[in-house]
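SAMPLE LOG
Freezer: B-3
Tube label: C17
Construct: single chain, 187 aa
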Amino acid sequence: MPLAPFSVERSHLLADTAGLQRIEIEIGPGNCGFLLEAARRRADTLFVGIEIRPSSPARATRRGTPPPNVRILCTDARWMVVNLLAPQAIDAYHVYFPDPWWKKRHHKRRLFTPEFCAAAHRTLRTGGAIYVATDVTPVFEGICENLLRAGFTQRPWQGRHDDPACSSYERKYRAQSRQIHQAAFQK
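STRUCTURE (predicted):
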């Protein structure tokens, strides 16, 4: 007998989080620098980090006790967005310096596939956005193409280079004077 469809609703994510109004997901939080700093600044928002490597939660706790509005899930973010999240459940996604998967045979592993972009559009609330940053021009061009094709509108967005809520990759790449491509894609 097939399983009944299940989706993670907004109310599921906000359960046991009194007073939180928004849900923002960072995909691939790495050392959790952005996630933790953003959560400290915006206490009305639940920040969820989705990391496929189990080391991410440990890195977050090495920096002290995470704020109460942080959750870290160890799973495949693409699978979760495509298969589990309910329509209109999320206010924003943050994806900073996704793995470029350089080899052609690995391109299928890139996050921003047409399937993922369509699912991100479905799961974002109206007016929600995906914030993206990368230093790899061809990857940025592919991200833009797939998100625009999924129905998003691209708008300029520039994170501050001196912001403590930027990722460790961003700090490193800016110190190396690499060009950083950034944009917000709004539903």
